[in-house]
Amino acid sequence: MAVTTDNYKATKPDSKMPLIELRGVSKSFGSNVILDRVNLRVEQGEALVIIGPSGTGKSTILRMIAGLLPIDEGSIYINGQKRNGLIEDQDDPIGISMVFQQAALFDSLTVEQNVGFSLYQHSNLSRRKIKDLVDEKLEMVGLTGTGNRFPSELSGGMRKRVSFARAIMSNPENPKSRPEIILYDEPTAGLDPIASTVIEDLVRDLQCTKRGCGTYIMVSHQDSTIRRTADRVVFLYGGKIQWQGTVAEIDSTDNPLVRQFFSASIEGPIRVID
Ligand SMILES: Nc1ncnc2c1ncn2[C@@H]1O[C@H](COP(=O)(O)OP(=O)(O)OP(=O)(O)O)[C@@H](O)[C@H]1O
């Protein structure tokens, strides 16, 4: 990797380097300013949950970190390396996986073909080897024996778990493809409380197992998901990070935005959009 003047390691040799850093990131859609000079650091091993009212730009942040959406202003550093443009323009120094709100599976492919998709497309691994890797990932998400089924034959929670298995898939011959951070966009949206608990437990399990991924950023609206999966919570509103704290601090903070959000009240500083 070429070291340039944009390289964070070169400019801040003594500071602990975050895995992901947004510095002064802004994003507008037309005249609609969504993010206004947002700063955010995500440390190795952190479980960060971004919360805030609908339409405040939470998914936009994930898509920019994944390199799927260009930023207007500011910089994104991935493990100290500045990303220029989109992921297709430049390889990131670490693997980043994204789990989309809708599981985004190919309906015409089996579970095995979905989970192994990138390896079938982009690796020289044998079918046997890919199948073994798929089976290992399916076991990790509690879906052993489902490889031959189609997404339409699974429940919403199971489809979500298939998308988790796909997110943690990597090519053992290319260590850089192993995800070091997973971005989860509302992983429990639309699931019943019990299916949500299964997903929340799985998110934490994957963080703790060596074969999983130690760092994640999640967007969620679900109270239980926020409380059970966050080490740190950031509250986004009006284009800015307005508050951040631990799960315990959610209930002790005086921040009126956080209080209104968690009490689900229509009275307060958050503008209610009918
Ligand atoms: N590609 C796009 N083109 C135009 N507007 C967009 C685009 N993507 C997002 N937006 C707008 O940007 C705003 C932020 O969207 P985003 O999906 O990031 O919000 P969010 O906080 O994740 O919302 P929710 O909680 O409802 O999922 C919304 O007003 C949305 O309509």
Automatic annotation (TrEMBL):
Pfam families: ABC_tran. It comes from the Bacteria. Transmembrane segments: none annotated. Keywords: ATP-binding, Nucleotide-binding, Transport. Gene3D superfamilies: P-loop containing nucleotide triphosphate hydrolases. CDD domains: ABC_Org_Solvent_Resistant. InterPro entries: AAA+_ATPase, ABC_transporter-like_ATP-bd, ABC_transporter-like_CS, P-loop_NTPase. GO terms for molecular function: ATP binding; ATP hydrolysis activity. The keyword rRNA-binding does not apply. Residues 20-263 form the ABC transporter domain. This is ABC transporter ATP-binding protein. It comes from Waterburya agarophytonicola KI4.
